Amino acid sequence: MQEAMIKRAKELLADGTVNRVMGWKKGEFVYDTTPAVFETAEELEKEFVCNDFTQANLSKYLIKESRKEGKILAFLKPCDTYSFNQLLKEHRIIRENVYVIGIPGGPKLDMEKIKAKGISGILDVKNENFTLKIETLYGTETMPFYEAVSGKCADCKSKKHVVYDELIGEDGDVLASRRFDMVEKLENMTSQERYDFWRGELSKCIRCNACRNVCPACTCENCVFDNPKSGIDQKAAADSFEENMFHIIRAFHVAGRCTDCGECSRVCPQNIPLHLLNRKFIKDINSLYGEYQAGADTTSKCPLTDYDTDDCEPSIVHERGVE
Amino acid sequence: MFRISAEKLNDLFDRIASKQTLYIPVDREDKAAEYKKYESGMTLSSALNTVRSAKDFFFPQTENLAEFRLSGKTIEVKDIRSEHEDFVIFGVRACDARSFGILDSVFLSEPVDTFYKNRRDHGTIVTMACTRPEETCFCTTFGINPTMPGGDVSVFPDGTGYSFLANTEKGKEFMAEISDMLEEGNPAQLAKVQENTRNILKRLPLANLKTDSFGGERLMKHFSSEKWAELSESCIGCGTCTFVCPTCQCYDIRDFDTGNGIKRFRCWDSCMYSDFTKMAHGNSRNSQLERFRQRFMHKLVYHPSNHEGEFGCVGCGRCLSKCPISMNIVKVMKALEDK
Fold first, then answer.
1. Which residues of chain B are under the pLDDT cut of 50?
2. Which end of chain B lies in a sparser environment, N or C, as judged by fewer CB atoms within 10 Å?
3. Residues of A in Cβ contact (< 8 Å) with B198
4. Do B6 and B116 have their domain in common?
């Protein structure tokens, strides 16, 4: 796959279709890949990587990149194309300045899941027929591939590319995902249990803002939490719950626009399952307004910014709140 | 040197906790380690290090500094610091132990930060020698020896038990409290473990990383480097590296109107943030390139320049494993070093 991508990128650079390529760059280890822009065939040959660990969603970078001189080639996984489409819909990306090549998605691997098995000092990871052979400073270890699959891929919603100029590999289908299982589990808890669950998770937050900054739906030029005039930027928490409000407010703000790309949970240094907040909104939108997938197209109206006489009444909030 | 067998470690924790508040690293449900206040029955984490560094004990993420209450024309200023109890942090690694020295050079130099000093005075640091370094470790680059971790007391695991060595007066007092629980050490067994660790250290993938190209005298060369653009290109401007870093020490102080008074609080700040050091005239570093450069220049050039050559990094590797886009100080050093 990587070789085919490099080959095609070099061709498109050479024939002038694009003047830059957005992909991932090799790191110190097999897993620490960095989103990067390549400008020459030499750079591509030397540093371009696409492997089991290239998880990062490149779509958000295209907001800035599409405003630069010339056209950029972007390699997008199926989930990334939903983010890309949603950003097109919000007029954040200039479509004609991006050449999209759809590439197959995951399942990608999460190094933390490998380390959680007690495997440390990792020097190399090879996938041999869905068994991971892991070279470490302390000898060779093996583990099943599927136990190391990243959270965002384990609940994959779609293998379909919703936007592309060309594809490398074959297109897939929207999947019958079990992504709402955990949301259902939370819904079935008592309000006290649910409160305790979220307090436990959100109290781990260190307010690094990684979730917000990586989120393709968070594209405000100046976030309300960074705006001194808003009265809520970095102010002292009046009580210990107030800190948690950051995540709840953010989930409200991206509701109806979140494509469920899973980047928020991927980047959280404290492993808070932030995507569950967003999924609760997605599930509610589906059940209250009919199935809706943000980013699936660029023309439909999001139920939350649209009005229909069949829309549910506000009293639904009260009705559903009854235990 | 005195030793305790592994099965008696929790008895030791119970003893320490009966006299002072004790914090130990424990595993969370997601297998990540964090410091927790010890309660009987807790198990010491087997992880190499905690996600959040031990700096939190002395320089917490947020703290209230003072309260002001206005009545008529008088303003009452309340000193509301509440930490007066002694506490013990057990299991601090050599990298984090060194970080306290770096934080000291900032907070304990004039004018002394009394909030920080108060906690430092009350804390006893019990370190733990490393036996299974990670691929992300590079403390030896900064002259740290993880087999001799320092602190008030050093603890050396040998597979079946732990040996203790007091390094300071505070450490000797700590040892006196537990001496009846310790037996004679086994220097031969310990020497073998240390030898083994030293061999692993030599084989670490980052073992050859050098600081030769950095330091105060290299300011203009590095500041003007063209490499920053590429290095910072995909930085998302979050504060993950800063907040998991044991040596990052920048903070913000603000007054907050509670409705019936003013709270003055301090919280961690990050040079990666767009409103960092924002002043009346605006911000001195307007692009992510400048903000990114600031963080690494501080660690590799400004800090050694201001503190007798000491770098502002201890090679703990937290930023290597936690950066959302896997950009970190190792990649910066490799890009900027003399070729």
1. none
2. C
3. none
4. yes
